[in-house]
Amino acid sequence: MRGMGFIATVTEGIAVAFDSLGGNKVRSGLTILGVTIGVVVVMVMAAVITGINRSFSELMAPEGITTFWVAHFDFSSMQITGPLEEGEDDFFKNPPLEPEWAKELGRIPGIRSAAPIVDLAGSGYEASSEGDRVEIGLYGVGADYIEISGGDIIAGRWFTQSEADRRAAVTVIDSATAVGLFGTRDPIGRDIRISRGSENARVRVVGIYRVPANFFAGLVSHYVWMPFATADKLLRVWDRQISFVVQPEPEMELQAALDVTRARMRRLRGLDIGEEDDFAMMTSEQMMDLWGQLTNVLFAAMVGLSSIGLMVGGVGVIGIMMISVTERTREIGLRKAMGGRRRDIMWQFLVEAATLTLLGGTTGMLVGGGLVWVVNQVTPLTAVVPLWSIVAALAASILTGIGFGLYPASRAAGLDPIDALRYE
Considering the entire predicted model, what is its pTM? Predict the structure, then answer.
């Protein structure tokens, strides 16, 4: 019989690869390890990034596609990486927003609501009651915040528009803060103290709110919400942290809402025709695009890190396959003398190399799957392994074996049968 069938070639290549594993444990182990590390990086980072993206989408979903934000500078244009460009200092150059302008925006026909909001999470605020103290994420929001952001009131109520208008000293907390400050006691109607340094404010708890489940909610363990005007009155709110959240009526198109809001903001700012806007409006789509820039950077890092592991594995493939060619030189010569075709010999060595790297890829998938399970168990993130990452990991493993095994395979296939038979 002249040559071997494709199936026989593949079968023999796989068998020889496993024999090589037993005969060269250290070299084969190092080859597999490099590929394993590369695949683990792909799987874990892809799972984490996919989980974060899903959480971000869930975070944005309650606001709806027509809800948008008004800020005093365009943070969507800021680069994720690289040096700052001209115009990116608008955070300090542009004047801050005036809180009362939100009412002006809310009076625009077609605008359902507009409210100032200030995010003071990470600013060092603490809540305390009767000696118990917890660090909090503090938010000054509007009375309709819960309607825009979703979530549930599990006890008590949300503060009213009347309370917000008269700057009532009321607050809504999450269940973790309720347990941290009051244990098993009912917190509704009790006072808590909000403090940071010399700032000190006493407010009454009127409700317990459960935020929509997402990864970002897990980054802060204790939440406190109060009317924006109350936070502005009782605490030293930095005016450059103020933004507006605007929700058009359901029947109003987003672009029309943006246009009328922009016109009203220009009038409030006192801008003449031809002057550039010294404020910015951010839609949900733009927020997603900005988030996409960040995840693209993470994906690039993932590719770079996994490539290093695959390169290490590929170099190992060249080394172990060249040794295999040397050890089997007489066998190759005998097969050629009996009519073995060049392509059959080449295929056999390529299959052997691909089998080694595929074994490393499979090991990496198992290890990566275990790490993803650990991430899901011990962190607030829901890591999700996307199907494409599994396909990409296996394909990269096989292509690494074929690509780096090509030179040893062609070297084996090109041996002269007479010289090979004489090899000692």
Answer: 0.58
pLDDT tens digit string along 134-173?
A: 888 888 888 888 877 767 889 999 999 899 889 899 999 9
111 secondary structure, DSSP code: E
* Lookup result for tokens 């060269």: 24
Angstrom distance (rounded) from CA 188 to CA 181: 12
Contacts of 42 (CB under 8 A, 6+ apart): 302, 306, 364, 368, 389, 392, 393, 396
pLDDT tens digits for 89-118?
A: 677 788 888 888 988 898 899 888 888 888
The residue type found at 104 is E
Strand partners, 244: 70, 116
The residues near 295 (Cβ < 8 Å, ≥ 6 apart) are 49, 52, 53
Q: What is the DSSP letter of 235?
A: S
Residue 192's beta-bridge partner residues? 203
- Rounded Cα distance between 154 and 146, Å, is 12
- Per-10-residue mean pLDDT of the chain, 424 residues long, equals 51 60 63 82 83 68 68 64 50 84 89 84 81 86 78 89 90 91 91 86 92 54 87 80 86 88 91 87 75 77 80 79 76 74 77 82 89 82 81 86 83 70 61
Phi, psi of 125 (to 5 degrees): -80, 150
Check: CB of residue 101 under 8 Å from CB of residue 171: no
* Mode of pairing for the β-strands spanning 199-210 and 191-196: antiparallel
